[in-house]
């Protein structure tokens, strides 16, 4: 059992063990991971296409920011509801509904002839991803019920998801340069259609379950709270921390979040039973994913801008420089199951987070005239190693001890942690970097040096998130040992 110290506290669901969902589960896993790849890819692939897209659809800077926000808001806000709907109505069913919606919205986005049409399509993409992602992870936990096989499966899952995050910059540059901005959306269509065609043949129909009443007040408050939280974090980057809209959304998120906790404590069938957090592995996995997501999203944003605005790389070259990082991530994700078996999940996770922090700190030393081979390649490899180990192990912990009736909830929680973490990290670290750059420019520093110094602070902040995650993992493991003493 891959635990922090001992076997986790199981979450009782009263659902009996189910028969295997597939006779070709490793093949099924490849298609589920492919769908998760698309979800992760779409969070970053659009970035490089934004200038060209804005020119064609006559969108200004504020409108272009909404191309990203329109996807992130429904995705982050609806994940918990999506996970619960999957538990209630069937994981395969919700996965296919989400994938069909995602493919349809991608086609609509690529065909957009106006900004309104594009933003609407992006919102549908995000809502569909919120159905798809937790259902997919739930299916993985059902396909691989034993600890050893599940760890291997999540190693593959983590590698593919990590590649999706890293590949966005590369594919965005290649597709935009070779075909046009529409290609960053159309690329989802053939891949998604393949997934839709094969999953029904590889995974059995959802078993009949007793449908408990859906917690509508809880669903409404947590969805509104998450949308407000993601909206507030997105507004920070555009409007600042003290703008009335930012403060209003933040206050709404806090109030709605508190209301949600009160509702969940009193309702007979809660959307998110608060008892799930008694599972220390689930709690640790989600906290680590929150912080790793904060570091990862800010990192990929800053690397793309640093290489193009400071080092003068074009979009394609900037994308190609991500290959060593992605390659290291893939290799490490594949060997994480072996590491967990030998040294345990706790040590694997802490070691990965320390390596990640080391790579980010090293990257922070890069000058404004950096050489890729001398200044960036080494840190990129360490970052890839750290991300691969941390992403896979945190995902493993977040679903450890979860049975079928709560699998969608667990998938929704870990994906929500990653999305909220990404928005939080980008808002905080981008603000810090911008303030540092502005101060140096005001003092007369050259623009390239000022930008580099700002990004240096951002990379150090991301390293601090990784170290914090390592400390939390160690503390939770220590508390677990004390409770058993």
Automatic annotation (TrEMBL):
Membrane topology: Multi-pass membrane protein
Subcellular location as annotated: Cell membrane
The entry's keywords: Cell membrane, Membrane, Transmembrane, Transmembrane helix, Transport
Family annotation (InterPro entries): MFS (IPR011701), MFS_dom (IPR020846), MFS_trans_sf (IPR036259)
PROSITE patterns from the UniProt entry: MFS (PS50850)
Residue ranges of every copy of the Major facilitator superfamily (MFS) profile domain listed in the record: 28-481
Transmembrane segments: 26-50, 62-82, 94-117, 123-144, 156-179, 185-204, 216-235, 241-263, 284-307, 319-340, 347-364, 376-399, 420-437, 457-477
Molecular function in Gene Ontology: transmembrane transporter activity
Record-linked Pfam families: MFS_1
Database matches in PANTHER family: BLR6921 PROTEIN, MAJOR FACILITATOR SUPERFAMILY MULTIDRUG TRANSPORTER MFSC
Protein name stated in the entry: EmrB/QacA subfamily drug resistance transporter
Organism lineage: Bacteria, Bacillati, Actinomycetota, Actinomycetes, Micrococcales
């Amino acid at each position: 059992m891959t635990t922090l110290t001992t076997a986790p506290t199981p979450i009782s669901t009263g659902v009996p063990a189910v028969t295997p969902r597939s006779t070709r589960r490793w093949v099924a896993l490849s298609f589920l991971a492919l769908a998760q790849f698309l979800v992760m890819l779409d969070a970053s692939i659009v970035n490089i296409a934004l200038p060209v897209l804005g020119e064609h659809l006559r969108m200004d800077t504020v409108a272009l920011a909404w191309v990203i926000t329109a996807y992130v808001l429904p995705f982050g806000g609806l994940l918990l509801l999506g996970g619960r709907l999957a538990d209630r109505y069937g994981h395969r069913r919700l996965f296919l509904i989400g994938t069909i919606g995602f493919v349809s919205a991608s086609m609509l986005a690529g065909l957009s002839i106006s900004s309104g049409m594009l933003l609407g399509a992006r919102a549908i993409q995000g809502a569909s991803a919120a159905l798809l992602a937790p259902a997919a992870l739930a299916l993985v936990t059902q396909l691989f019920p034993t600890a050893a096989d599940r760890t291997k499966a999540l190693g593959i899952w983590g590698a593919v998801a990590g590649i999706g995050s890293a590949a966005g910059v590369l594919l965005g540059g290649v597709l935009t340069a070779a075909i046009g901005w529409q290609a960053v959306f159309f690329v989802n269509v053939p891949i998604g259609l393949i997934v839709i065609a094969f999953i029904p043949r590889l995974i059995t129909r959802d078993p009949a379950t007793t449908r408990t009443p859906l917690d509508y007040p809880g669903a409404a408050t947590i969805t509104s709270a998450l949308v407000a939280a993601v909206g507030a974090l997105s507004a920070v980057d555009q409007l600042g921390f003290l703008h009335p809209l930012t403060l209003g959304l933040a206050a709404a998120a806090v109030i709605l979040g508190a209301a949600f906790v009160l509702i969940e404590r009193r309702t007979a069938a809660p959307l998110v039973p608060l008892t799930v957090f008694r599972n220390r592995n689930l709690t640790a996995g989600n906290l680590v994913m929150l912080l790793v997501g904060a570091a990862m999203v800010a990192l990929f944003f800053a690397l793309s801008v640093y290489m193009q605005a400071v080092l003068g790389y074009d979009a394609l070259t900037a994308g190609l420089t991500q290959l060593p990082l992605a390659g290291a991530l893939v290799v490490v994700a594949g060997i994480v199951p072996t590491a967990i078996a030998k040294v345990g999940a706790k040590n694997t996770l802490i070691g990965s987070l320390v390596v990640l922090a080391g790579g980010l700190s090293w990257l922070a030393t890069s000058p404004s005239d950096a050489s890729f081979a001398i200044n960036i390649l080494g840190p990129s490899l360490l970052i890839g190693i750290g991300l691969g180990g941390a992403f896979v192990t945190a995902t493993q912990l977040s679903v450890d001890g979860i049975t079928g009736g709560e699998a969608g909830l667990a998938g929704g929680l870990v994906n929500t942690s990653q999305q909220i973490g990404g928005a939080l990290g980008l808002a905080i670290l981008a603000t810090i970097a911008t303030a540092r750059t502005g101060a140096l420019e005001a003092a007369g520093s050259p623009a390239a040096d000022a930008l580099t110094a700002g990004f240096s602070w951002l990379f150090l902040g991301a390293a601090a998130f990784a170290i914090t995650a390592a400390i939390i993992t160690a503390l939770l493991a220590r508390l677990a040992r004390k409770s058993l003493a």
